Amino acid sequence: MMGIIKRFKMPIIIGLIFAALYIIEPTMAEKSTDVTRNYFKEMALIMPPVFLLMGLMEVWVPKDQIQNWLGSDSGIRGGLISLLLGTLPTGPLYVAFPMTATLLRKGASIGNMVLFLGSWAALKIPQLMVEIKFLGIPFTGLRFVLTLTGLVIMGFIMDASLGRSSAEDWLPKDKDEVMKKDKAESH
Question: Under a CB-based contact definition with an 8 Å cutoff, are residues 112 and 79 in contact?
């Protein structure tokens, strides 16, 4: 019983917060429930294609190719590929995390993945077009350069601190390993 409570601690806490919110402030609880429902709908529509894409990438793109394109020896070319891969998509950021984990398992460098995630979050081309329209080219250009500079610096720092150990040391290998770990913790 304690294992189940420990395993589902966060959902239980969230459920208790929702219950208290329904008692204290019912209208706010209803709005919160609507937001949560819409978020889950969005996730249900977006995540299956992402997992399909990840599975295809796992099968079709060889590990040595990822290491060549995005690995620690890829240099500026790897950074440019990471930047390009991060600026093109239009989906939400949470889509990029499973893709990043797959790329890390296949040998992509941490620095390139920081650049990929950061450019997905802050340098997407559609986002830049809207920003240019409302804030102008000088502002957008300066923000782009400063953001890109910050991402490159963060990538170097992450490579320096985590790059010494391989991703296998801190990233779960696959679903089976995570399931074994969860079973061991619940007993």
Answer: yes
Please work out, in degrees rounded to the nearest 5, the angle formed at the alpha carbon of residue 33 by the alpha carbons of 27 and 39: 140
User: Among residues 99, 152, 98, 157, which one has the least CA distance to residue 122?
Assistant: 152
In the block, tokens 């590929």 appear at: 81
pLDDT, tens digit (0-9, with 9 covering 90-100), for 132-167:
999 999 999 999 999 999 999 999 999 888 865 656
**Residue type at 148 in one-letter notation:** L
Q: What is the dihedral of CA 16, 45, 85, 73, to 10 degrees?
A: 60
Q: What is the DSSP string of 80-111?
A: HHHHHHHHS--S-GGGHHHHHHHHHHTT--HH
Q: Is 112 within 8 Å of 68 (Cβ atoms)? A: no
- Dihedral sign computed on CA atoms, order 167, 73, 88, 162: positive
* CA dist., res. 72 & res. 108, Å (int): 7
| pTM value > 0.85 | no
